[in-house]
Amino acid sequence: MFNLLPTSAGAEPLRQAVLACRTHLIGAAVFSALVNLLYLTPTLYMLQVYDRVVPTGGLTTLVLISAVALFALAALAALDWLRVRILLRTGLKLDQALTSRILARTVDLRGAAPNVHVLREFDHVRTALSGQGTLAVLDAPWTPIFLMCCFLLHWSIGFLTLFGGLVLFLLAWLNERDTRERIRHAADSASAAYAAQESLAAQAEVVRALGMRANSIARQADERRRAVQQQADANMAGGAIPGRSNSCG
Predict the structure, then answer these.
(1) In this structure, what DSSP letter does residue 110 have?
(2) Going by C-beta distance under 8 Å and a sequence separation of 6 or more, which residues neighbour residue 157?
(3) Both ends of the chain: CA-CA distance in Å?
(4) Residue pair 133/126 in contact by the 8 Å Cβ criterion
């Protein structure tokens, strides 16, 4: 992943900021591997029930393996919760590291027109690194492995897994519906921050002449922090249903 970062001189601050977050990204990848391994818990649980409990009627064995399965599912939900928070922290860290530098560079550069959307472009990068897209990338390599294991156990388990995928799709739709309003408020705050930043860039000459450069940058950074925090709150609220769906998966 880190080899894909740009190496040009102008992109060096972005590269340094992302490399500073590599511990977060590696941690998210490790948690994703554990989460995907724990996805096999229900399948292995049923396999043990039919192999060890049903033939012998051993209630003690059933209780023990049920306790282990519940512990594994709880660990699954906790690890998924943690990796989402790690990626959110990654986005916040990137924003804190680069926002003031981007705003300062925008004010210092003459000719504001080419630079008014620079923060919006940066937000696209930040969201790609800290949002659900990264989780999907980390989970994608495990999907065919998981399906293959299920079909190797039994064809009915494989088709049951496919059905579970449809259930997860439904839960994702419910999650989107529940967080739509929060995300709309976050988008409105972000739009206001973009508009204020564009106004600052358009009046850069006046701002520098009046000696308001530092105060203007600080105010724009504060507005962006509020917008980013609202986006993080929406993402945290949206993590509740995916966490429950992983427990059921």
Answers:
(1) S
(2) 43, 46, 150, 151
(3) 28
(4) no
* Spatial distance between the Cα atoms of 110 and 153, rounded to a whole number of angstroms: 65
Instruction: Report d(CA 190, CA 196) in Å as an integer.
Output: 10
Q: Burial, 140: exposed, middle or buried (Cβ in 10 Å; 0-12, 13-18, 19+)?
A: exposed
Answer yes or no: is pLDDT of 11 > 70: no
Q: Measuring CA to CA, which residue among 82, 11, 5, 77 is closest to residue 41?
A: 77
Lookup: tokens for 196: 């204020």
Q: Which of 59-85 are b and which e, b meaning 16 or more Cβ less than 10 Å from the residue's Cβ?
A: eeebeebeeebeebbeebbebbbebbb
Alpha helices (runs of H) in 131-249, residue ranges in sequence order? 132-139, 142-153, 155-202, 204-209, 213-238, 240-248
Q: What backbone torsions phi and psi does residue 55 show, to the nearest 5 degrees?
A: -65, -35
Q: What is the pLDDT of residues 207-228, one digit of tens each?
A: 677 777 777 777 777 777 777 7
Residues 113-170 pLDDT 10s: 445 567 777 777 787 777 777 888 888 888 788 788 878 877 887 888 888 878 887 8
Q: Residue 243's closest CA among 63, 31, 11, 54? A: 31
Average pLDDT, the chain: 76
176-180 contact pairs (CB < 8 A, 24+) = 176/238, 178/237, 178/238, 178/241, 179/234, 179/235, 179/237, 179/238
